Amino acid sequence: MTDDLKLASAYNRFGLGARPGDLDHATDPHAVLARQLSGDVGANAFSGLPASTDYLHREAVALAAARQNKRMRDDPGMSPMQDDAAPTPARQRRAGRGELREAVRAELDARYRHAATTPDGFAERLVRFWSNHFAVSLDKRPALLYAAPMEREAIRPNVFGHFDALLQAVASHPAMLRYLDNTRSVGDDSRIARRLSGKRELGLNENLAREILELHTLGVDGGYTQTDVTELARAITGWSTPAPREAIDSVPSTAFVFRPNAHEGGARRVLGRMYADSGVLQGRAILRDLAVHPATARHVSNKLARHFVADDPPKVVVDRMAQAWTRSGGALVDVYRALIDSPEAWAPDARKFRTPDDFLVAALRAMDASQPIARLQPVLTQLGEPAFTPRSPAGFPDVTTAWSGGDALFKRIQAAQRLASLPVTPDPLATARIALGAHLDDATATTLRRAESARSGLALLFASPAFQWRT
């Protein structure tokens, strides 16, 4: 592969897509990627957004208001206000839902604005890979406010650190704790279970423990058993978030709390190793060992290689990445370097079919345009990949067959037409050179030259086979 083709791959297959000037101002494809393996990963772009602790406080206040409204509805004597402009319970509920929607919208606006404009597309792709690896869905109401903050607070600060730190940060974030129900998990032999025995139905919830083992670390074939799942679930009982009563008067100091009363004491055995009864540290010790387990190194390295190289990545690339993982104790930069240092990762036949999110972001970057999430989310939904809304904790699929069916391609053509109708209508051939670089083929270029208008040319470009692939 020539350096021109490699440079286009650095921006498109490893990054989120080339922007105007990218391919003109760089000459060393490897250096383009290596330069991005440090830094704050766009932290400044999100500095004005509320922290999860702020959202916990807002939720507590809103919940208190909702309960007051219910009491007013149930007791007419508590509803003295007759003014048409007075804040009736219905109006307050609508206002509360509106505030919630606005907060989520602001989070997603910032995320997609940054994706469309950042010069560090490789770093941003890594952030989005980890968000999908540790998938949380907006569909689950308790996690709604926290999915995007988890990316800001747990993933971005750790994307160039050790996997252990990333895993610990995600597993103790309110988004994951709520999405996988760990906030409701109570040890069968915990103090609170014994106290409330016969009065309330409490119990162990294994959702988070199961997904940590199956999805986040070892993988489904990683050698764990149902006993390991149960033992890990017991070890992380008590991992929770501040309750509304703890967050209503002021913003809590932390979004993670450990509740000893809900924790099941005792030593735990996971994957054959005993972990002493040490409260919150017991679960953290297990996660630390899982993060450097050889099965984790293999499972996650394979996912990374599949995301960046090909649906069926070369075994030698995965081997090098897993070896770097084991050798470094899960230092992610070492794993990324093993990826981009592998000649096979730059082979001419290495390519990935763009997911809908990739497709949309790459088009915006090529046009040097940014759009609010209010316009992007309907398109992403139509294409089957609405932001932060995977169908399961496994995240969105990352293989061609999931996105290349006939109906999916028809909808992608419709999306290409909608993208071409944006107020920004640059020259389609120039846009193709920006987006595809040396990968622009003669047939696509000829088609664009013959387009009836700039808009039809852009639609043809975004619908073309050349644009559908991260080559």
Describe the model.
This protein has 471 residues and is mainly α. Helices cover 55% and strands 3% of the residues. Strand 3 and strand 4 form a beta hairpin. The mean pLDDT is 93.
> Order of helices and strands, N to C?
HHHHHHHHHHHHEHEEEHHHHEHHHHHHHE
The largest sheet has its strands arranged as 1-2
What's the end-to-end separation, in Å? Answer: 11 Å
Percent helix among the residues? 40-55%
How many E strands?
A: 6
User: If you compute it from the alpha carbons, what radius of gyration comes out, rounded to the nearest whole angstrom?
Assistant: 25 Å
Q: Which class best fits the helix and strand makeup?
A: mainly alpha
Strand fraction: under 5%
Q: Are there runs of 5+ residues with pLDDT below 50, and where?
A: none
Shape: globular
Largest sheet: 2 strands, antiparallel
Number of helices: 24
Mean pLDDT across every amino acid position:
93
Q: What is the topology?
A:
Blueprint: H1 3-12, H2 22-25, H3 29-34, H4 52-74, H5 89-117, H6 121-133, H7 147-155, H8 163-171, H9 174-179, H10 191-195, H11 207-216, H12 226-235, E1 239-240, H13 244-247, E2 257-258, E3 268-270, E4 273-275, H14 280-291, H15 294-308, H16 315-328, H17 332-340, E5 352-353, H18 356-367, H19 373-383, H20 406-420, H21 428-436, H22 442-449, H23 454-463, H24 465-468, E6 469-470
Antiparallel strand pairs: 1-2, 3-4, 5-6
Helix pairs in contact: 4-5, 5-18, 8-14, 11-12, 15-16, 16-17, 18-21, 20-23, 21-23, 22-23
